[in-house]
Each structure stands twice: as structure tokens, then as C-alpha cells.
Amino acid sequence: MIDTESHVLYADCIARHIHKKHPRDSLEDLVGDARLGLCEAAGRYDAQRNDSFRGYAYRRIHGACIDGMRKRYDTTEELVLVPGRLDDAYDTVEMKQDLGTLEDKERQVLQWFYYEGLPVKDIGKRIGVSGTRVSQIMSAARDKLRKRMA
Fold it and tell me: Do 90 and 24 fall within a single domain?
């Protein structure tokens, strides 16, 4: 079991970063979400399946903050996590349309990585490719989204 106390500042830092991008949301709420995400990550982390706890925890903490914002603003639309525009998620209707332009495999890989927090090597096992190929698929999908959003 991971000692969450030593990672609380890391979770708080992620919450502050999200708050800078979304000042509409309360910092206290985001910190609470981040700490819940940290506890969830600590409970689910498997050192034999995942590389570093910090990398694994980041996805869980960030996801918990996004989920919390989604619940607080009672939105049924997905908040999309795309690096480079990671937190520009209030433009959700347009983003959902943009996601529709991706190939099924690209969309599925992004969902597994950003929403479910699966490690790249686990995604590769699911679709029968290497972790390097998964990274290439993710990169191509993000490039397509960036071009559509530009």
C-alpha cells in the first residue's frame, strides 16, 4: 500500500494547476477531488503492472478533478483531456464532434489512457501492438484534434 501522506502536496499541485485553467471552479473543491483521486490511486496501484506511482497517480488525480467538475456543473458532456489543450474542456460540444473524426482505434486508445488511466503497455496488450505503437497512435490522434481545433 502506498503512503498517501507523502504525495498530498503533489495532488494539491495538480489541483492548483487545474484551478489556474478553470478559475470558475473552487480551489477547495479541486483539492478535495485531487486528494480523493490520490487515495483511489494508492488503493489501485500495482507496482508489478505499472511503472511509477507518480505517473499512475497523475492520471487518477487529474481524472478525479475533471469528474468532480463534471458533477458540480451537472454536465452530461465529456470533458476531453488532450495535452496542449488539456483543460480547455468547456468547449465540449465542439470537442465531441472532433472526437467523431478520429478512427475507432484512436478514440478507444485515448479513452483508455485518459479516462480509464490504463498504462500504455496494457493498452498495447488489449489491441495487440507494442507500447511504442500505442504512443504513435495517441500522438496521431492528438495531432488530428489539434488541427481540427486550430
Answer: no
